Amino acid sequence: MAKKLGIGVIGCGNISKAYFSLAPLFRGIEMRACADINMDAAKARAKEFKLRAETVDDLLKADDIDIIVNLTIPAVHYEVSKQVLDAGKHVYSEKPFVLSVKEGLDLKKRAEAKGLRIGSAPDTFLGGAHQLVRELIDTGKLGKITSGTCHVMGHGMEHWHPNPDFFFQPGAGPVLDIGPYYITNLIQLIGPVKQVAAFASTPAKERTISSKPRAGEKIPVNTPTTIHGLLEFENGAVITLNTSWDVWAHGHAPMELYGETGTVFVPDPNFFGGDVRFTEDSKPVKKLPKWKHPFGVPNEMHSQGMMANYRTAGLADMAVAIAEGRPHRCSMELALHAVDVMTGLLRSGETGKFVAMQTSCERPAALGVEEAKALLAKKK
Known about the structure:
alpha/beta; Dihydrodipicolinate Reductase, domain 2; 380 residues; Rossmann fold
C-alpha cells in the first residue's frame, strides 16, 4: 500500500505525545496536523513534532486529513467524534469511546450514512503478550474458559498527574478510565458479555493532589472509586473484576483465566508486553518463552525498566484495513460493547440489580506475528 492516510489530532494533552512519537513505527499513516482549544498547546506539539498547528474548525476542513484522532477528555468524546464524522472524516478515539450506548449508536448511524470508519483505543490487546494468550485459547491449550479474575487497583491519579480533576468526575473513575484495557482484552480473549453485577462505593469525597504544580490542592470526587464487579459472558464464563483507586498495595495478579484444561496468568492489559505464565492440568506453572511478536519487544524506558509500547497500532490497523477493505480490530462494535459493560457495572452499583447488555460483538481477528510485522513501516 503506497498511499498513507493523513492523520490529524484533536487534543494536545499528555497522551498526544505517545501518538506523535510512535506513529512513525507504522505504515499506512502519517501525522500531519494537530489542534486544541488551547492554541498554545497545539503550537507546542506542532513545533515538537514538525506538524501544522490548526484550529479545530480548520483541521476538520483540511483536505490532506483522512482520519482524526480524538484525544479530548472523555466528557466530550461523543461531541468531538460527531463533529469529525459530520465533516466527512474517519475518527479514531481514545478510550472510553463514548459514555453511553445511546451516544455510540448515534455515532454508528452517522458513520454508516457516510461510509466512514470509527475506531477506538485501547489497542494494548494487540500486544505480543496478549496475542500469545489469544493463541493459547484459540488453539485449545486451555480448553473452554470457565472463569477468571481481574484486579486493577491503586490509589488514584492525584499522585502523579498534573491535572487529575477529570479522573474523579462522571465519565472517568477506575472502571471507565482503566477498565477499558481489561474489559477489551477479556472480550477479545473470551467473547462478548451477557450481563453484569457490581457493588460500588466512594470512600473519600475529596482528594488532595500531591503532584506538581498543584500539590496540596483539594479536588472533589463525584464518581465511585471502588467497584467490584461480576461479568457473565455469552459462552458461560464468569469473571470477577475488581477496580479501585482506594488501595495502597495488594498481591493480586492483573488477570487470571481458568480453563477446562489449564490456567493462564495474563500480564497487565494496560501494556503491550509482559510475561505470560501457563499451566496444563496439575503441572507446575511455567513462564512461557517470549513469542517472536513485534509488539512485545521492549522499546521504551519506564520506571519499571524497558517496556513494550506500540500505541497507535490500532490506528495503523484501521488505516490499512480501510485501504484493504477489511474490518479493523479496534472497531466501533468492540469499543461500544466495552462501554456497555462498563456503564452496566456502574448502573448495577447504583441500583443493586443485574444489568443485561444492550449490545454484542464479534471477537476481533487475532493479530499474529506476520500480521503484526505487516503493520510496521519498513526500516530505512
